[in-house]
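User: Assemble these into one structure.

Assistant: Restating your components, then the assembled model:
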Amino acid sequence: AQSVTQLGSHVSVSEGALVLLRCNYSSSVPPYLFWYVQYPNQGLQLLLKYTSAATLVKGINGFEAEFKKSETSFHLTKPSAHMSDAAEYFCAVSGEVNNDMRFGAGTRLTVKP
Amino acid sequence: DTAVSQTPKYLVTQMGNDKSIKCEQNLGHDTMYWYKQDSKKFLKIMFSYNNKELIINETVPNRFSPKSPDKAHLNLHINSLELGDSAVYFCASSQDGMRTEAFFGQGTRLTVV
């Protein structure tokens, strides 16, 4: 069954530093991949998605992710972290079964001043 | 207008009670989901529906019964509540259940005492 693995349950960076959140997927078919952000006491919001067009995907708030089939990865990056980026980030996969979107365990991003 | 709305936002109840959570989406989407988020933020799919038809039914106790009166609504009824049911429950919808992103409600925090 399709799944995603997020390496690192907690990532801490300094303000202005590079953000790198890791996601690896497993799927028997070409996947559709998503990154979501969750702020405290809120629902999930889409940051960006990969749907087999460009392998480098740009999203909101300066985030981007690159689909690498050879590495089965879809890591999320941002060149310069802001305090407002502190949140929980989730990678998700769909495509193997209709109407079935699976999420990773999440990575909590902390941004230090 | 809220795209995916859930009610109530908070629900505190005693063990053994029966409760319902309502979800409505005004996006015209065909697919709706219920996810459970535990205290460690892990998001687990419970059910998905497509045009009122049950598609995904994960290993969820049969005390949980989803009902979709029409494709804009997906309600969750829980019988004989247990302490372990305490979690945040999210409703979501997507246009096609595969290549399009899911839109999430704000969540319902269920506390069983």
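The first strand of chain B starts at residue 4 and ends at 7.
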